[in-house]
Amino acid sequence: MYKHGIIALLLLAARNAAASCVHNTSLKPRAEDGAVPISTFGYTGLTGPFNWAGLDAANIACSTSRTQSPINLNSSTASKLSTRPTFSFNNVSSAEFENLGTTIEVLATGTTTISGKAFTLKQFHFHSPSEHRIDEEYFPLEMHMVHEAADGDGAIAVVAVLFEIDAVDATQLLKAVTRNIDKIQRPGSKTETAGLDFAELTAHLRNAPLLTYQGSLTTPPCAEGLTFIVPQKPMPLDVDTYRKIKGTVKFNARYTQNEAGLENILELGCKAVDEAKKAAPEPSSSTVESVVSPSASAVTATGTLESTLASTVAHASSASPTTTTTSCSSSQSASPTAAAEDSVTLVEGHHCIAGACVKRPAATAAKVRRRSRWERY
Ligand SMILES: [Zn+2]
């Protein structure tokens, strides 16, 4: 029952995702004309992970869920797979290679069977630096192989492969993938890889200890219910390939989340802000003024953090439309409601919740102007 609820939530939320980690699955199908979608979220400032929930109500889980990815993997947060899955990926002479703006993605096919349940490989894409860490250590590159349940129940499994810089060895699959990477420097562009041979990768997955845990999408809408499988040992990465990938994706790693079951980091951050406000003198009027001012240069560091947190948790708020405080404590309850929608006051180019306004990224502001109230986010 619980699992079905999670999957339903995943289905609902992921359909709103733009070029997220589940692109090319039934949750976020490819465009019929083959156009490469460009992500509307990012990794910097107000489009970044601290404000993903502020970009779209469908991203509520990013700021409230207690089962989020990525995490630091250790003996208390992940378990070793006792029954090893089977992996079978299809070698090809070339594959479509796309720049989604927030990652680079290869369309691939294959099957991974986990405890008798078959999952179909849909695509793999890259994060640099790695999103997951092992015993606190990060790695320069992580590859997410996104699978969808073959029985159509909507379950998603991600094989997350870590790579470490190696002065001698290289993973030939990565060299083949990036052969034409110079042709997809522009978001929305696509090219073809060289021939892809998965034998080296498959051998690694068959021999390395495998860690597993239940997590979430590491991109908006941060929906729960994903099964992660992570080889405990990294594969080799040559410097030239690493530079090619890093130079294209720039930076696309979400910050490390709390352990499963523990409070969402953003909600904890809001509590800390509230406590600090209680302990500190009343902010001067000039500070409040700077938060609501469109002039980014006038925003103080404190104002920026506070307003970003308020914006980030905004869609979790159950505050009534008449609420006028900006306390982060309004984030402690529940799910996106009509009341929460109504508490949003639109100011051209700004995202305003209960009186706190932050400058909205241009693309998002434009989207608000085009959509009706119920389609607003
Ligand atoms: Zn990913």
Topology:
Layout: H1 2-14, H2 52-55, H3 61-64, E1 72-73, E2 79-80, E3 86-89, E4 96-99, E5 104-107, E6 110-114, E7 117-127, E8 133-134, E9 141-149, E10 156-165, H4 172-177, E11 190-192, H5 199-207, E12 210-216, E13 224-231, E14 235-237, H6 239-249, H7 265-279, H8 285-292, H9 301-312, H10 338-342, E15 344-347, E16 350-353, E17 356-359, H11 362-370
Parallel strand pairs: 1-8, 10-13, 10-14
Antiparallel strand pairs: 2-12, 3-6, 4-5, 4-11, 5-7, 6-7, 7-9, 9-10, 12-13, 15-16, 16-17
Helix pairs in contact: 7-9
The structure holds zinc ion.
Quick overview of this protein structure:
Reversible hydration of carbon dioxide. This protein has 377 residues and is of the alpha+beta class.
Task: Please give a handful of descriptors for the protein shown.
377 residues, Carbonic Anhydrase II, disordered C terminus, binds zinc ion
Q: Could you explain the architecture of this structure?
A:
Helix 7 crosses helix 9 (301-312). The chain has 2 domains: 2-44 and 78-249, Alpha carbonic anhydrase (Carbonic Anhydrase II), CATH 3.10.200.10; 265-375, no CATH class. With 377 residues, the chain is of the alpha+beta class. The chain contains 11 helices and 17 strands. It has helices at residues 2-14, 52-55, 61-64, 172-177, 199-207, 239-249, 265-279, 285-292, 301-312, 338-342, 362-370; strands spanning 72-73, 79-80, 86-89, 96-99, 104-107, 110-114, 117-127, 133-134, 141-149, 156-165, 190-192, 210-216, 224-231, 235-237, 344-347, 350-353, 356-359. The protein binds zinc ion. Zinc ion binds at residues 21, 125, 127, 144, 218.
